């Protein structure tokens, strides 16, 4: 092969390296994700004019996406990345004009609310407050709000608009979730029950 054909490529790669080296990547990138409230934060030393940050978002089956943050803000609300059936990958890049840094952290952050996801970060929900009522025939009634209704809806920051029907209810079906009721301190042997609970709010 002719060496000359390589030269532009090598030159281009070298230029990319130089350009990348000019803009420092963000440091100390952390993701908080709990109760469908997700915030990505990072540090940056030199807040020069025109500095912007691009939050790079990938998801399973979704096309890559980015949101822009102007400095001096060094955080982004990504609560809309809370679909329990999806896994996300996120990183942040510093951009000055045409020049940009490498993305940080280098391996990006993978996260999901799906408990069996392969992501390094599994985000969690607190169980909503539970009302327990004893019924006359030895049964108990356990009542609590569906976590999706508690944490997901009425989120002004949510980018995906929930479709509401005429009655103002969420027309999308609520995701099924499981919970366990464990009886302790009872005369008969303890019974553990697991109940799949999905409501189609009517
Ligand atoms: C990253 O965090 C470390 C430890 O808290 C701190 O010393 C350092 O200054 C931070 N980096 C930036 C760019 O702020
Ligand atoms: C981008 O980097 C080049 C050098 O590679 C520099 O000449 C140019 O001024 C930089 N642009 C900005 C907006 O910083
Ligand atoms: C639990 O009980 C309180 C007080 O009676 C009531 O306000 C609340 O709505 C109940 N929550 C559920 C989920 O039933």
UniProtKB/TrEMBL annotation:
<dbReference type="InterPro" id="IPR013783">
    <property type="entry name" value="Ig-like_fold"/>
</dbReference>
<dbReference type="InterPro" id="IPR036116">
    <property type="entry name" value="FN3_sf"/>
</dbReference>
<dbReference type="GO" id="GO:0005886">
    <property type="term" value="C:plasma membrane"/>
</dbReference>
<dbReference type="Pfam" id="PF01108">
    <property type="entry name" value="Tissue_fac"/>
</dbReference>
<dbReference type="InterPro" id="IPR050650">
    <property type="entry name" value="Type-II_Cytokine-TF_Rcpt"/>
</dbReference>
<dbReference type="InterPro" id="IPR003961">
    <property type="entry name" value="FN3_dom"/>
</dbReference>
<protein>
    <submittedName>
        <fullName>Interferon gamma receptor 1-like</fullName>
    </submittedName>
</protein>
<keyword id="KW-0675">Receptor</keyword>
<keyword id="KW-0732">Signal</keyword>
<feature type="domain" description="Fibronectin type-III">
    <location>
        <begin position="8"/>
        <end position="101"/>
    </location>
</feature>
<feature type="signal peptide">
    <location>
        <begin position="1"/>
        <end position="21"/>
    </location>
</feature>
<dbReference type="GO" id="GO:0004896">
    <property type="term" value="F:cytokine receptor activity"/>
</dbReference>
């Amino acid at each position: 092969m002719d060496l000359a054909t390589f030269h532009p490529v090598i030159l281009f790669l070298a230029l990319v390296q130089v350009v990348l080296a000019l803009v420092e990547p963000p440091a100390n990138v952390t993701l908080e994700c709990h109760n469908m409230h997700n915030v990505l934060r990072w540090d940056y030393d030199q807040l020069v004019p025109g500095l912007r940050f691009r939050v790079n978002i990938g998801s399973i089956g979704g096309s890559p996406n980015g949101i822009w943050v102007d400095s001096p803000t060094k955080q982004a609300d990504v609560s809309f990345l809370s679909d329990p059936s999806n896994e996300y990958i996120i990183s942040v890049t510093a951009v000055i004009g045409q020049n940009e840094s490498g993305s940080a952290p280098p391996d990006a952050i993978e996260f999901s609310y799906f408990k069996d996801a392969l992501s390094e970060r599994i985000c969690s929900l607190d169980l909503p407050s539970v009302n327990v009522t004893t019924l006359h025939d030895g049964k108990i009634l356990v009542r609590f709000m569906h976590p999706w209704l508690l944490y997901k809806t009425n989120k002004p920051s949510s980018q995906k608009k929930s479709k509401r029907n005429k009655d103002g209810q969420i027309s999308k079906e609520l995701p099924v979730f499981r919970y366990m009721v464990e009886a302790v301190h009872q005369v008969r042997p303890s019974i553990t029950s697991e109940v799949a609970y999905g409501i189609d709010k009517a």
